[in-house]
Design a protein that fits this description.
The chain has 13 helices and 8 strands. It has 363 residues and is an alpha+beta fold. The protein folds into 2 domains: 168 residues; 124 residues, no CATH class. Strands 4-3-2-1-5-6-7-8 form an 8-stranded antiparallel β-sheet, covered by helices on one side. A hairpin with a 5-residue loop joins β2 and β3. α1 runs antiparallel to α4.
Length: 363
């Protein structure tokens, strides 16, 4: 028990602040669409998914001299297309394809830099790895916290804030709140770590599908495309995707990343929880003809389970009630991490000194 207590205390003191900031940023990002609907023109527009409207907007956007690499199309909760260019350049466009806001730095948009921090710690792929490791450490933190709470479970008290700002009261509150929120914290931390650390994701899906099977199923088609046509009929491209998957929502359109690449279109079928779906259609850039497709519902079981990580983590399912639940989860992690840091660094060697004093009195 002493070793567990020591590990828990030092873990909280060292990574508590990082987990607190990730919890707070996550709680805010849950409400990103609501923020955009309140602050950006046309964000409240009703979604339009007919091929003619989408085709006209995409044609207008890609016809610009400085055109984006990809477009995330308007959704039921957000009536804007999001455009991604090179580096940090991005923009929002209305559903007619007109740019309503544009930026060249992540710092220009609060939701963009908040996302960059929460998912990448402002450091790209390296930040993702650090964030994933922090998530695993957080899981260990929850596990050891439950271990330490169990002997004190009979004096459990539900309080949103410590009874008094003294160490004993803070520790008591910390344990009880952590035990109460443990299921939500485990869900948030596990899904977050799985999205950032592929080896961890593969390990927890292994009972359902092997890593090799999932990798092969998600590989893009080995088909070479032609040069992107300047007068490509985007309406026809979108119509083909809709005809292949009737009732599916067209979610993203991406241009070839390099010569010989294909145009990619992502769709979300009704059974998919992932907001942008994993159903794919690929097109030859020269002719606009569909050359391959992939049904997300036919993916290996492990891959389908992995596709639930993001919607569960970011509260993209369940409507407002689940968004509020995950907001509480994020704010709870913020409070737990902050108080862990305060109590540890306020007196990092306190427990050792108390044990020495107890031994001295016993002598």
């Amino acid at each position: 028990m002493k070793a567990v207590r020591l590990i828990h205390r030092w873990t909280g003191g060292l990574i508590g602040l990082l987990l607190a900031l990730m919890g707070l940023s996550g709680a805010l990002l849950v409400h990103e669409d609501a923020f955009l609907r309140a602050t950006v023109p046309h964000a409240v527009d009703a979604q339009r998914q007919d091929a003619a409207t989408l085709g006209a907007a995409v044609t207008r956007i890609f016809a610009a001299e400085d055109h984006p690499r990809s477009i995330v199309l308007a959704s039921q909760r957000l009536g804007l297309h999001k455009l991604a260019y090179k580096n940090e350049h991005g923009a929002y466009a209305d559903q007619d394809g007109a740019i309503v806001q544009s930026w060249t730095s992540n710092w220009a948009r609060p939701e963009v830099w908040l996302f960059d921090f929460h998912h990448h710690l402002f450091n790209g792929d390296a930040g993702e790895i650090v964030g994933g490791i922090a998530g695993l450490a957080g899981l260990g933190f929850v596990g050891t916290g439950l271990w330490l709470w169990w002997p004190t479970r009979r004096i459990f008290h539900l309080r949103p804030w410590p009874r008094m700002m003294k160490r004993a009261a803070i520790v008591h509150h910390h344990r009880d709140l952590g035990a109460l929120a443990a299921p939500l914290l485990i869900l948030s931390l596990t899904t977050g770590a799985a999205m950032n650390l592929k080896w961890f994701s593969d390990a927890i899906r292994a009972p359902f599908s092997s890593a090799a099977t999932m990798k092969a199923a998600s590989a893009p088609p080995k088909i070479k495309g032609g040069k992107l046509a300047k007068d490509l009929d985007w309406t026809a491209v979108i119509a083909q995707a809709q005809a292949r998957y009737p009732g599916a929502e067209v979610r993203t359109i991406g241009l070839p990343a390099k010569p010989g690449g294909l145009i990619s279109v992502r769709l979300r079928q009704q059974a998919e929880w992932l907001p942008n779906g994993r159903t794919m259609a690929w097109f030859d850039p020269a002719t606009g003809k569909m050359v391959a497709d992939r049904d997300a519902q036919a993916l290996p079981l492990g891959s389908r389970i992995a596709n639930l990580d993001y919607p569960l983590h970011a509260a993209k399912v369940g409507g407002l009630p689940y968004r509020l639940v995950m907001t509480v989860s994020g704010l709870t992690l913020t409070l737990l991490g902050t108080l862990a840091v305060v109590t540890f660094w306020g007196n990092p060697t306190g427990s050792l000194k108390r044990r020495k004093r107890a031994k001295a009195k016993g002598a």
